Amino acid sequence: MENDTKLKKAIIKMIVFFDIFDYPLTILEIWQNLEIKCELIEIMAVLENKIQPPLPPLIKGEAQPPLPPLIKGEAQPPLPPLIKGEAQPPLPPLIKGEIQPPLPSLSGRRIENKNGFYFLPGREKIIKERLERYNFANRKFKKARLVVKIFKFIPWIKMIGVGSFGSRNLRDNGDIDLFIITDDKRIWLTRFFCIGIIKLLGLRPRLNNNLKENPHTLLYQGGKRDKICLSFYASLSALNLEKLRLGQDDLGFTYWLAGLTLLYDVNKTHQKFVKDNQWLADSLPNWQLIGQAGYCQVCGQGVRPLAEVRLLFENAIDLFISWLEQQFKTLQLKILPEKLKSMMNRDSRVVINDQIIKLHANDRREEYIEKYLEKIRQINDRKKFLCNV
């Protein structure tokens, strides 16, 4: 019973957090992002409020009884309790057009569901928003894939992913946030060429430095819709990003990394990334199963054609240009916006060194934590609710 209570609380906490981003969850997404290791069937049982005992083992050599035919239009009776050793009765059919009743109470509050999505009471409208954003994401991923095809010719790029809170949860007027892993001692060269390509394509958000606003906020001229954000790089020697967290409550950073959609991967860099970030797998033990499998939604593993010729080409480029790494670093630091310079290495929002470049001046993780805790207070007394967390 205690484990069931913890599981219920963990489910509610997750649904509350993703509600901040107007993102209802499917059962599979709840299981993948849960902080407790469990089976998918356990999640289904909690959401249906029917915690059933495990099925009794079949006797070796015993034939399985055939299922009786289903009667069309028959009403669904409640399931009888399972008796030890008794065969499990079949599930009768749902009546066509029958309205699904709301889910029973979880920790004193109901979690509603519709069309396979789970959300907080009164938030049914976010289902439509999620489906609309899926269409927006298709448009944005089409542009991202075009950019990645060009970025493949930069020899020091080892992995590219698109970051978001939830699968393809991209707003219509938002940009496309890329996370790039590079070779060691080539992070500044990589950033220089990536930015150069994006500027030539007209896809880089333009900063508006003429407005007098909060010094810790970057403003963009002409909007960010479908622009490419190149503000997060890590080298192969700095794949463990745990030090960038804002403590254990930083669910935003955890879910952002777990939600990366892989666009390009060289030599199984993504698997190395997952292995080095063991804290991420520990925080989301069910997600770990997918991460270790090299899960990729868009374009596979980025296999390179004509590998030997390409390797020769890349080595030649590296030989003639690699010595410019420090010069390009000096140049980029010189033209860095003053707002970023003022925040550089003060905390985990803006981190600049030869292993990591993270330029999130508009980092809203603290805001997300506050919104999350406030929603928890509204659902239940915070002290009671988090006493076992």
Care to describe what's here?
The chain has 14 helices and 12 strands. The chain is an alpha+beta fold. It has 2 domains: 2-128, no CATH class; 130-368, no CATH class. α5 packs across α11.
Tally of distinct domains: 2
Total beta strands: 12
Helix content: 25-40%
Note the run of SSEs as H and E: HHHEEEEHEEHEEEHEHHHHHHEEHH
C-alpha Rg, in Å? 25 Å
Number of helices: 14
Overall pLDDT metric: 78
Strand order of the largest sheet: 10-5-6-9-12-11
How would the global form be characterised?
A: elongated
Q: Give the biggest sheet.
A: 6 strands, mixed
| Low-confidence blocks of residues | 50-59, 67-72, 74-109, 210-221, 291-303, 385-389
Q: Cα distance, first to last residue? A: 16 Å
Structural class: alpha+beta
Strand composition percent:
5-15%
Annotation keywords:
single chain, 389 residues, alpha+beta, 2 domains, six-stranded mixed beta sheet, 14 helices, elongated, disordered C terminus
Summarize the structure.
The chain has 389 residues and is an alpha+beta fold.
Write the layout of secondary structure elements.
Elements: H1 2-19, H2 27-32, H3 40-47, E1 105-106, E2 109-110, E3 112-114, E4 117-119, H4 125-151, E5 157-162, E6 176-182, H5 187-200, E7 206-207, E8 220-221, E9 228-235, H6 251-258, E10 261-265, H7 269-276, H8 278-283, H9 285-291, H10 307-321, H11 325-334, H12 338-343, E11 350-352, E12 356-359, H13 365-379, H14 382-385
Parallel strand pairs: 6-9
Antiparallel strand pairs: 1-2, 3-4, 5-6, 5-10, 7-8, 9-12, 11-12
Helix pairs in contact: 5-11
